[in-house]
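Troubleshooting: if your tokenizer reports a length mismatch, compare your output against this known-good record of 218 residues.
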Amino acid sequence: MLPSRYRFRATPTPEHLIRSIDGTKLPRHYGVSFTRTGVIRADYGRIVFRDRMWEHPTLAALVCEGLFFLPMRELLIPTMFVGAQLDIVTRMFGTTPDGALLDQLRAQDLRARRPITLSGGERRRADLAAAVCRTPVCLLADEPLRDLAPLDAECCAEVLRSLARAGCAVVVTGHEVGPLLLMADRVVWCTEGTTYDLGTPASAADHWAFRPGYLADA
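Known-good structure output:
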């Protein structure tokens, strides 16, 4: 699906890694999130998911294997009550969501509302509530902190970390470098059509090429 340098192993590790990917200037046909989930077809290569090599993955097939893809926007149906949609996810996959995480997202306050009436932060919390209801093996989140107020961003980041601590492999993309470095276990930098595994957030912050372009005090 992807060339070897893009190979993606989503099996949870003992460290329950949150892996952060910065997609600056990544060519459209290498759109990491959409290619890895099978939403779009890559030019060549493969991915590894749950110890299985996938030549031509589709989103539907990977979802059945435990993937949850959280797009940057428009996950939930705009005019359908949030609560009804969360209940559908739970029934469809036969899961028992973590009530503490749903409380942290204040999901109960959103159940009787439609996504079209929610603010950006509320929509993102509703989206994450759907992910919590799925109890995924792997969560791939495309820019989950984008355009969020600080309190909503902090809430969403902590929920992502809680999912990782519970054993979910969490991969996020984004350009909010400061918050991402605080929440990530490892950092992969995607730039100019290639990727660099920068290692830990501390290593990424000290990287000679990454630091000047992304950290204000460089």
